Amino acid sequence: MVVVVTTVASFEIENTGYLDASGRPTRPLPAFADDRDELVSLYRAMVLTRTFDAKAVALQRTGRLGTYPACLGQEAVAVGLGAAMSPEDVLLPYAREQGAQFLRGVTPTELFLYWGGDERGSDFSGPREDFPICVPVASQVPHAVGVALAFQLRGEPRVAVCVSGDGGTSKGDFYEALNVAGAWRLPAVFVVTNNQWAISVPRSAQTAAATLAQKAVAAGFAGEQVDGNDVIAVRDVVGRALARARGGAGPHLVEAITYRLSDHTTADNASRYRDDESVGRHWREDPIARLRAYLTAAHGWTKDDEEATLASCAKDVERAVEEYLATPPQPPEAVFDYMYERLPADLRGQRTAATEARAAAVPSDDG
Ligand SMILES: Cc1ncc(C[n+]2csc(CCOP(=O)(O)OP(=O)(O)O)c2C)c(N)n1
Ligand SMILES: [Mg+2]
Q: Which ligand 1 atom is the nearest neighbour of the CA of 74?
């Protein structure tokens, strides 16, 4: 008997990058990169993000902010995807997309408020339809599918852009969401920020899959990798995925390869599970230094340009810190106010009790 074996499916995963770690182009850059102003705006967005990030950690260390997840080293992913999006698209972030949020009009003050435990920080004055930060791992991915379905049903040329981490791709939510997005050809772009760690779990222990991008293939659509420390590449690859999804070609997955240079959050101490030497190696891939080197070589970026950018970002962040610290806290019963349109009866009772407890705790004038 002759057994005939036929290949019924095969796939390839591409990886796109334009600048090497020292900022030298490895091939011709995409057209938008001819525009110095465009590159400077990407650069400034990354510097603003890093300035905000450092300040947020400092505020937490001095007891003026809650637990905070730094995005140190990953700025190019969020900035690249944020720059690629159109205003009418909807961003469903995880927690390290500060750079994308700023580009979309979320203010540094709002993000300080959020990480300071104040829900008003999620009430964005800018992108009203963008989703709030999503700390529960991967629960934003099915939400993105819902948003994309709404766009499809309404015939709107908009795309849901969902960001999750490498760890998030192990969750059932992630696979289920991708499956539906593929089956219904929804206008969604899934960006996976592969920063090599899920708290203390390295990427190598997270999954036996060779790439995270290939997880899209099982759901019936394409995935690819991009150098997540090359902001030009992220903007380019996500931009092309958005254009295709907007045109009705369905979903796409982009795995952005980067590295979490910081602790997982301010509640973590990464030196307990990884050595300084490997972190030091990854500093050589720094996305900000990389674009700065290219700007200097190709667009005459000067020391004065650099200093002016650092000063203007520092000023923006300082102003936000002042606004944040001057914002009076909400009363404790505010914790009941953002979950339900109409508060269920049992929670109404608890809310009243919180108001009464607050009134009782306020010292009266006559002592
Ligand atoms: C459903 C759920 N389980 C566990 C946690 C605790 N937790 C917070 S972040 C995290 C790891 C996430 O790793 P990854 O998806 O790679 O994102 P990263 O934090 O590296 O950006 C875990 C397990 C959580 N927030 N939500
Ligand atoms: Mg991770």
A: 21
Domains of the chain: 32-330 (3.40.50.970), 332-361 (no CATH)
Contact 114, 121 (CB under 8 A): yes
Task: Look at residue 339 and tell me whether its pLDDT is greater than 50.
Answer: yes
CA–CA gap between residue 226 and residue 249 (Å, rounded): 20
Write out the DSSP string of 301-367: --HHHHHHHHHHHHHHHHHHHHHHHHSPPPPGGGGGSSS-SS--HHHHHHHHHHHHHHHHHSPPTT-
Is pLDDT larger for residue 53 or for residue 337? Answer: 53
Task: Give residue 187 CA to ligand 2 midpoint distance, Å.
Answer: 25
Count other Cβ atoms within 10 Å, centred on residue 289. 15
Please compute, for residue 6, the number of CA atoms within 13 A of its CA located in the half-sphere on the CB side: 1
Cα distances (Å, whole numbers) of residue 218 to 10, 15, 209, 325: 11, 19, 12, 48
Strand extents, DSSP E, the chain: 15-16, 90-92, 160-165, 188-194, 197-198, 201-202, 223-227, 252-257
Q: Residue 367 pLDDT > 50, yes or no?
A: no
SS3 of residue 192 by DSSP: strand
Residues catalogued as catalytic: 260, 264, 273
Does residue 166 line the site of ligand 1, with CB under 6 A? yes
Terminal C-alpha separation, the chain = 99
How many whole angstroms separate alpha carbon 34 and alpha carbon 28? 10
Q: Which residue has the tokens 């899934």?
A: 190
Query: What pTM, to 2 d.p., does this model score?
Result: 0.95
The model's pLDDT over 250-294, given as tens digits with 9 standing for 90+, comes to 999 999 999 999 999 999 999 999 999 999 999 999 999 999 999
